[in-house]
């Protein structure tokens, strides 16, 4: 008997999460893990959600299929639910990656859950039946309160976590210690914040139990980060095979590119110290372009451009796709962030050098969480195939 695909529901909130769901689907399709005996007796599963109709016209950055072949005939086993944030940059990137996902044959459902046009409880009401019916659920951000809320009605025995950046490292550490899930850069907050967290604790606790492998329940982590899986957890390495098969190799430029970070926006790094660091790196390494993080503020980017003369680029796709598509500098410099772990995979064999500049503890604000220093150091120290740069790069002489 031919096995049927397990109906899978993916909940994503950022462009990077959606990219990593595409990588996960590609990896599973090529190892037959997506097909199990669980669905064989029941036949082909009914759609979990209706797909959002394709928008007229093509989206920038469409994926190139090998030999321009058709989508996989079994691609319908995966339904992707996009829970978009409110900021325009993230929404724009999400729409573009969603277009690529549709080109791969996956159904994409756009569900507003924030702001004036949507609410978390409205999203729960709309999605709860699909969450209950899903044979497998894939999530991109286990720290998200919205995702935690949506996991409450889940009945699946298999959960997969794909990367939402370096936060995966902290997720595994906190889950292993039995702690409540809390973002590494968050501080204690005031009385009102603590009261809200106390009221939300039952939801957070349920989500943590859902994500903990025990009693036959499988938790899979699909990641580019250097982590040690917990007992009973299945670990699969995301080596960006899908990205490498669809894009590039890129044309290389003579200059150096610098990858921006939102550490200023999250209150971790002092804005003046950050500007000084960017200026020093620009002078020392001949940086010509600055790839902005989607959360960086226009005011900050304008100040950086005026102080350094850098060309500010606001990518319309995740940086892994932008770099693989090219053109890209022969050297890419980054502060401690996700890309120092993902770009070496995405750019393997291209001749591009990825370099990481440490964060000096003196750059941290007084509001930075106690975990900030050790977490950022860990991101740098565990990066593979990268060149290490000193925390304070001095301006070139003369």
Task: Summarize the structure in words.
By secondary structure, the protein is α/β, with parallel strands linked by helices. Helix content is 35%, strand content 16%. It contains twelve helices and 13 strands. The chain has helices at 15-29, 88-103, 120-133, 145-151, 167-177, 191-211, 241-246, 271-285, 298-308, 319-325, 339-346, 372-381; strands at residues 8-12, 78-82, 107-110, 136-139, 158-162, 218-223, 233-237, 252-259, 287-291, 311-313, 328-334, 353-357, 387-389. The chain starts with 7 loop residues before the first strand and ends in a 9-residue tail after the last strand.
Order of helices and strands: EHEHEHEHEHHEEHEHEHEHEHEHE
Distance between the termini: 74 Å
| Secondary structure: number of strands | 13
Weakly predicted, low-confidence segments: 33-46, 50-74, 393-398
Q: How many alpha or pi helices?
A: 12
| Average predicted local confidence, pLDDT | 83
Which sheet architecture does the biggest sheet show? 7 strands, parallel
Question: How large a portion of the residues is in β-strands, by DSSP E?
Answer: 15-25%
Shape: globular
Helicity range: 25-40%
- SS-based class: alpha/beta
How many domain regions?
A: 2
Rounded radius of gyration (Å): 21 Å
Strand order of the largest sheet: 3-2-1-4-5-6-7
């Amino acid at each position: 008997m031919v096995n049927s695909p397990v109906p899978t529901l993916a909940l994503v909130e950022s462009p990077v999460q959606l990219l990593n769901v595409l990588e996960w689907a590609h990896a599973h399709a090529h190892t037959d893990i997506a097909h199990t005996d669980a669905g064989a007796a029941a036949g082909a599963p009914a759609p979990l959600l209706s797909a959002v109709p394709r928008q007229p016209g093509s989206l920038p950055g469409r994926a190139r299929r090998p030999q321009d072949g058709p989508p996989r005939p079994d691609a319908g086993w995966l339904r992707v639910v996009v829970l978009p944030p409110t900021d325009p940059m993230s929404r724009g990137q999400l729409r573009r990656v969603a277009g690529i996902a549709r080109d791969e044959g996956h159904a994409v459902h756009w569900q507003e859950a924030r702001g004036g046009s949507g609410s978390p409880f409205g999203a729960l009401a709309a999605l709860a039946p699909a969450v209950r019916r899903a044979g497998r659920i894939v999530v991109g951000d286990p720290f998200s309160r919205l995702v935690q809320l949506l996991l409450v009605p889940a009945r699946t025995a298999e959960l997969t976590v794909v990367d939402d950046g370096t936060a995966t490292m902290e997720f595994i550490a906190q889950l292993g210690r039995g702690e409540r899930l809390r973002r590494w850069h968050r501080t204690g907050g005031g009385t009102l914040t603590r009261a809200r967290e106390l009221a939300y604790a039952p939801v957070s606790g349920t989500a943590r139990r859902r994500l903990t492998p025990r009693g036959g329940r499988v938790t899979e982590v699909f990641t580019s980060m250097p982590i040690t899986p917990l007992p009973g957890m299945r670990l699969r390495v995301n080596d960006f095979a899908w990205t490498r098969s669809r894009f590039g190799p890129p044309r290389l430029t003579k200059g150096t590119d610098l990858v921006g970070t939102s550490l200023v926006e999250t209150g971790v790094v002092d804005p003046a110290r950050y500007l000084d660091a960017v200026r020093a790196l620009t002078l020392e390494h001949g940086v010509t372009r600055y790839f902005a993080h989607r959360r960086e503020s226009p005011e900050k980017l304008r100040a950086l451009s005026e102080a350094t003369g850098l060309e500010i680029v606001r990518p319309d796709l995740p940086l892994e796709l932008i770099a693989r598509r090219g053109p890209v500098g022969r050297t890419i410099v980054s502060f401690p962030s996700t890309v120092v772990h993902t770009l070496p995979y995405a750019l393997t064999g291209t001749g591009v050098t990825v370099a990481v500049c440490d964060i000096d503890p003196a750059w941290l604000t007084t509001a930075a969480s106690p975990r900030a220093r050790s977490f950022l150091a860990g991101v740098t120290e565990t990066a593979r195939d990268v060149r290490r740069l000193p925390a304070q790069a001095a301006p070139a002489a003369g």
